[in-house]
Amino acid sequence: MLKLIALILVFIYVVMPLIRFLMKAFVITQVHRKMSEQDIRNQQKSNARKEGTIDVDYVPPKQKAKSDSLEGDYVPYEEVKE
Q1: What is the tens place of the pLDDT at every residue in 2-43?
Q2: Nearest-CA neighbor of 5 among 67, 13, 44?
Q3: Which residues contact 49 (CB under 8 A, 6 or more apart)?
Q4: Chain-centre distance for alpha carbon 66
């Protein structure tokens, strides 16, 4: 009977505070983890494309302009004098 009372007292004065401490530490780490995940999400949203902006993913290479070649169709013509 004395052993049972001693076990109950040990449980009340040692195990219960230990469990309370471990649960508090667990909850605090979970809260910090969720807050950091939320901060990362908010930072990604702020880096996202804003409304009204244009992002160009591909720019075609520029061709060298040749001064002697003519672009388009060339139509020879003669002036007619009347």
Answers
A1: 999 999 999 999 999 999 999 999 999 999 999 999 998 888
A2: 13
A3: 55
A4: 46
